[in-house]
Write a structure and sequence with these properties.
This protein has eleven helices and twelve strands. The protein is of the alpha/beta class. It folds into three domains: 36 residues, no CATH class; 127 residues, 3-Layer(aba) Sandwich (Rossmann fold); 132 residues, 3-Layer(aba) Sandwich (Rossmann fold), CATH 3.40.50.2300. Strand 6, helix 8 and strand 7 form a beta-alpha-beta unit. Helix 4 crosses helix 11, helix 7 packs parallel to helix 8 and helix 9 crosses helix 10. It is elongated, with a radius of gyration of 25 Å. One of its GO terms (molecular function) is DNA-binding transcription factor activity. Keywords: DNA-binding, Transcription, Transcription regulation. InterPro entries: HTH_LacI (IPR000843), LacI/GalR-like_sensor (IPR046335), Lambda_DNA-bd_dom_sf (IPR010982), Peripla_BP_I (IPR028082). It comes from Bifidobacterium hapali.
């Protein structure tokens, strides 16, 4: 008896047929669907959304070619010590695993069309670490379509809960900084925040206000200045705070760079730290211990967070998906810039 044999399509024909079916279903050309699948840029966001939704619904994935032994790091700026701490943490973890690191500086335009994506797709790295910024929707879809995982490090906005992210306990850090000053006897405390649109800035300020509220001290808007995490801004806003008739006896800075600006303002006004003014920073970058006097600050384990971002990418690359969000504890580091308020 003759046996019926089911003739199997070669894998390449199966793939072409599937793309053709998807294109027909969406009333698009096969070339357009292929562009979405391969992360090409010349597709409108609306069309990309439609194609990506159907690809996900059908669980269609392009077989990814072998990834290059690289980690891509995308961050806003390289010209500050915080960014250098991030790079150090990433590089050390990558070196331990014999991986290279490619760094892209966006110069603050990370929300614009993601110019770095084309080069990233060409390199085909193990994954991407996005520092501070959430990826534009188009960039995220293009990375996903090529199977390139990404991790958000200290995201500035509200991250997608389905995307792995790493941050510090900013609220707890803000709380600890102000509690320390309250314990020393300060009650009139100035604050210089980061940009109000950034989650870390919001959380640090909320922690500060919670510490005041616990002591029954009402918030005073005249003591809160919105900054941008730079030294220049820290200096200018500290001068405004210290120019008030009833000037603060202490200032909590949004980060160590702003605290450096507060030091500069105190020098301009001939105020002694900590005798006339106590100062607390946030981050504990390397230079904070060598300021004069050494800076009391909240330690954010930047290098450890950056190293864990590499580990997350490797786990995602190996399909062992990690917990979506990690929060690292912060720690108060008491040095020479804080003391009881001067009553002389």
């Amino acid at each position: 008896m003759a046996r019926n044999k089911t003739q199997q399509r070669p894998p390449s024909l199966q793939q072409r047929a599937t793309l053709t079916e998807i294109a027909a279903q969406l009333k698009l050309s096969t070339a357009t669907v292929s562009k979405v699948l391969n992360g090409k840029p010349d597709v409108s966001p609306a069309t990309r959304d439609k194609v990506q939704a159907v690809l996900e619904e059908m669980n269609y994935r392009k077989n990814r070619s072998a990834a290059a032994p690289l980690i891509d790091v995308v961050l806003e700026r390289l010209d500050n010590v915080w960014g250098l701490e991030v790079i150090t943490g990433v590089e050390r973890a990558a070196r331990d695993r014999q991986l290279g690191v490619v760094i892209t500086e966006t110069l603050g335009v990370s929300d614009a069309p993601s110019f770095w994506v084309d080069a990233c797709l060409e390199r085909n790295p193990i994954g991407v670490i996005l520092v501070l910024s959430n990826p534009a929707q188009d960039a995220a879809q293009r990375l996903s379509s090529r199977g390139i995982p990404y991790v958000l490090l200290d995201p500035s906005g509200d991250p997608n809960p389905n995307v792995p992210s790493i941050k510090a306990d900013n609220w707890g850090g803000g709380l600890a900084a102000t509690r320390h000053l309250l314990a020393l006897g300060h009650t009139h405390i100035g604050v210089i925040t980061g940009r109000s649109t950034m989650l870390c800035s919001q959380a640090r300020l909320a922690g500060h206000l919670a510490a005041l509220a616990a002591r029954g001290i009402p918030a005073d808007d005249s003591l809160i200045k919105e900054g941008d995490f730079t030294t220049v801004c820290g200096r200018e806003l500290a001068l405004q705070l210290l120019d008030q008739d009833h000037r603060p006896t202490a200032i909590v800075a949004g980060n160590d760079l702003e605290a450096m600006g507060v030091y500069d303002a105190a020098h301009i006004l001939h105020l002694r730290i900590p005798d006339d003014l106590s100062v607390v920073g946030f981050d504990d970058v390397q230079t904070s211990a060598y300021m004069g006097p050494s800076l009391t600050t909240i330690r954010q384990p930047i290098r450890e967070m950056s190293s864990e971002a590499v580990n997350m990418l490797l786990r995602r690359h190996e399909q062992d998906l990690p917990s979506a969000n990690l929060t690292f504890p912060t720690e108060l580091i008491i040095r020479g810039s804080t003391a009881s308020p001067y009553n002389g």
